[in-house]
Design goal:
Blueprint lengths: L1 H4 L3 H14 L9 H21 L3 H17 L10 H8 L5 H25 L7 H40 L1
Protein name: E3 UFM1-protein ligase-like C-terminal domain-containing protein
Organism: Micrurus paraensis
Pfam families: UFL1_C (PF25041)
């Protein structure tokens, strides 16, 4: 069949153009300039959001999406539950130290979310001691997240400052 013989995107587009022409269907070509402009505006909006947010889960989400966009030159809209897959994908696209930082931060974000859920779901049968231990653990996780948040944001903000300087 035709589909099994197509190996690249370029071959597919060529076949698609030929098929559209044979059917008298007019295909509109993509506007590269407009696509670049939309990509740039989307990236800038995400960066501005990243600059002002203090929520660790959102910092991780925005950083992951922006790193994906920088490494693939493609826009990505993904829910938070897809962040682990994005980080896994990035393992081959970004330096190992940056990936390790993301993985460490992700682990802390997950721990924080779990401890928040436990706090919300606490019953009256919990001992005072276990409640105090859980609160200490939550505080420790929060402090670690605060310490790393700047470094995670800098994966985007610091590298972009040098890129912007190079373009000028």
């Amino acid at each position: 069949s035709l589909c099994s013989s197509i190996k690249t995107l370029e071959e597919f587009v060529c076949c698609l153009d030929a098929a559209a022409e044979a059917c008298d269907i007019m295909m509109k070509k993509g506007d590269k300039k407009k696509e670049r402009q939309i990509l740039f505006q989307h990236r800038q909006a995400l960066i501005e959001h990243l600059k002002v947010t203090e929520d660790p889960a959102l910092i991780l989400h925005l950083t992951s999406v922006l790193l994906f966009q920088f490494s693939t030159h493609s826009m990505l809209h993904a829910p938070g539950r897809c962040v682990p897959q994005i980080i896994t994908f990035l393992s081959t696209k970004i330096p190992e130290d940056q990936h390790s930082l993301l993985v460490k931060y992700q682990g802390l974000v997950v721990k924080q979310l779990i401890s928040q859920n436990k706090k919300i779901g606490q019953g009256d049968d919990d001992s005072v001691e276990s409640t105090l231990n859980a609160e200490e653990n939550t505080d420790t996780i929060w402090k670690e997240l605060q310490e790393l948040s700047g470094s995670v944001k800098d994966l985007i903000l610091r590298s972009r400052k040098s890129s912007v300087t190079e373009e000028c």
